[in-house]
Amino acid sequence: MLVVAFAGQGSQRAGMGSTLFPRYRDVVNCANRILGYSLQDLCAAGGPRLTRTEFTQPAVFVVNKLLYEDTLANDGIVPDVMIGHSLGEINALHATGVLDFEEALQLVKARGAFMAEHNGNGAMVALVGERDQLLHEVSTNESEVYVANDNSPRQIVVAGTKDGIKRLSQRLSLQQAATVIPLAVSGPFHCPLMAGVDDRMGEYLEGCLLREPCIPVVSNYSAQPYRSDVMRTWLAKQVVSTVRWLETIQYLSGSGPLAVREIATSPVLTPLIEDCLKRMRESVMP
């Protein structure tokens, strides 16, 4: 089964899209009109502005779209299912016909603005270590820290208040229980500190025409394929809920061997997916 996986925030790089923008001028011009600024200039400059979620999200979404268009043109792949990590899920929904490009970019623009306006004054870090131990530490010792991304057997991402993240990071470092990697993000995404953003997303989505996907898209919120009756709810709740990436890979692997094609400026999801699959293979070895 061929799975296409779109990366989200964290995959952005200065200079991304530079070879694609000249070849997809109509798409880029349309994006610049919707956004009100030059994506080419934003991506070329990089720096702090590209890490602000209201700019990161549109930039990553458009570059992902161009990378996927290029992949289709060059390789002619035919995916069986699509997934996306956080923001990348909107790329998957666009690629499967749920939203056209302008509708999807308008949604991404709104999503970035809502999340920027309600940033929760928090922080996020990636924790590399044994997942079960890390989950125990978060659930038993920190009331101000939440699992934002359940990525693999060896990595989770947590979000929370700056003080809570600092306490947890110091404790895990002293215990040598995890490698702590601060993330260059502008808020504590995918956790209850973003409460209210889901309501605003829900209201925005009420005005959107969401079509049936032409191939399945597995939701971050549920780790199950999107259905028309829950699409708006799951897409809105995603921004305040854990990205269930490990469960998503487990769900997909139940259908047989996976071949994964990541769509990203740099490979951020492939190592996580390989870690998930490796641990699953080990668990069934005699």
From TrEMBL:
GO terms for biological process: fatty acid biosynthetic process. Gene3D superfamilies: Malonyl-CoA ACP transacylase, ACP-binding, Malonyl-Coenzyme A Acyl Carrier Protein, domain 2. The active site is at residues 86, 190. InterPro entries: Ac_transferase_dom_sf, Acyl_transferase_dom, Acyl_Trfase/lysoPLipase, Mal-CoA-ACP_Trans/PKS_FabD, Malonyl_CoA-ACP_transAc, Malonyl_CoA-ACP_transAc_FabD, Malonyl_transacylase_ACP-bd. Signal peptide: none annotated. SUPFAM superfamilies: FabD/lysophospholipase-like (SSF52151), Probable ACP-binding domain of malonyl-CoA ACP transacylase (SSF55048). The keyword Transferase applies. GO terms for molecular function: [acyl-carrier-protein] S-malonyltransferase activity. Residues 5-283 form the Malonyl-CoA:ACP transacylase (MAT) domain. Its EC number is 2.3.1.39. GO terms for cellular component: cytosol. Keywords: Acyltransferase, Transferase. It catalyses: holo-[ACP] + malonyl-CoA = malonyl-[ACP] + CoA. PANTHER family: MALONYL-COA-ACYL CARRIER PROTEIN TRANSACYLASE, MITOCHONDRIAL (PTHR42681:SF1). NCBIfam families: fabD. Belongs to the fabD family. This is Malonyl CoA-acyl carrier protein transacylase.
